[in-house]
Amino acid sequence: IEVKETTIFQDGQTVLDHVNFSISQEEFVYLIGKTGSGKSSLLKTLYADLPLEIGEIQMVGYHIPKMKERDIPFMRRKIGIIFQDFELFYDRTIAENLEFIMRSTGWRDKAKIKVRMAEVLMRVGLGGVNNKMPHQLSGGEQQRVVIARALINEPKILIADEPTGNLDSKSGHEIMGILNQLYEDGNTIILVTHEDDIAQHARRIIRLFDGKIIEDSEIKGR
């Protein structure tokens, strides 16, 4: 990711001004800011949900200001998003939830779908939940499903948007353990949070305040 001299607007208002940062492969970056600091608007701009009017962004090999609309779905396949509120289909089983995403992103072979589904669920410690409905799982287990879903297409970057926000402390700790393991396995991760406590083990912090980046620091020794 490379963001140069970018100003982000939402509903006609300037949300972030003169934003500059880059993120390399295999980094784990904490994007920290209070509610309303522009975190969500920045994320939406990175995956082309908000139009980029001023500045330049290179995102997983795509140049967003010059990217054609038909290329947006292909760019998004290279990004795995972990949502705070899960965004699962509650009238479908876990297997049906994952299969929906897989088929919508080009998977066709039933055998390959089954194998990949098993791989990502095992990776988050959820083997054997295929036929369960989301409401039969705890919040922490549902968030594990969301992580599995984000991993399906082997994304170049994972964006975890307040991944522990709806969880109790024990489940939140377990989710952070999974994310840290994914980082150790070579994944690039942006974790978005408004909680400084979550960032106690951060290696790099980008902090937003009053529409600007006020900190971009690497923590030595971590």
Written description of the protein model:
The chain has 222 residues and is an alpha/beta fold. The two termini are 22 Å apart. A six-stranded mixed beta sheet has the order 6-7-8-3-9-10, sandwiched between helices. A four-stranded antiparallel beta sheet has the order 2-1-4-5, with helices on one face. The model has no long low-confidence stretch (mean pLDDT 93). The protein has helices at residues 39-46, 72-76, 94-104, 110-123, 139-151, 169-184, and strands spanning 2-10, 13-22, 28-32, 54-59, 62-63, 79-82, 157-161, 189-193, 204-209, 212-218. Helices cover 30% and strands 27% of the residues.
Percent helix among the residues? 25-40%
The DSSP helix count reads 6
Widest beta sheet: strand line-up: 6-7-8-3-9-10
Overall form? globular
Element order: H for helix, E for strand: EEEHEEHEHHHEHEEE
Q: Note the gap between the termini.
A: 22 Å
Content-based structural category: alpha/beta
Number of strands: 10
Which radius of gyration do the C-alpha atoms yield? 17 Å
Task: Kindly summarize this structure in a few lines.
The chain is of the alpha/beta class and 222 residues long. The chain has helices at 39-46, 72-76, 94-104, 110-123, 139-151, 169-184; strands spanning 2-10, 13-22, 28-32, 54-59, 62-63, 79-82, 157-161, 189-193, 204-209, 212-218.
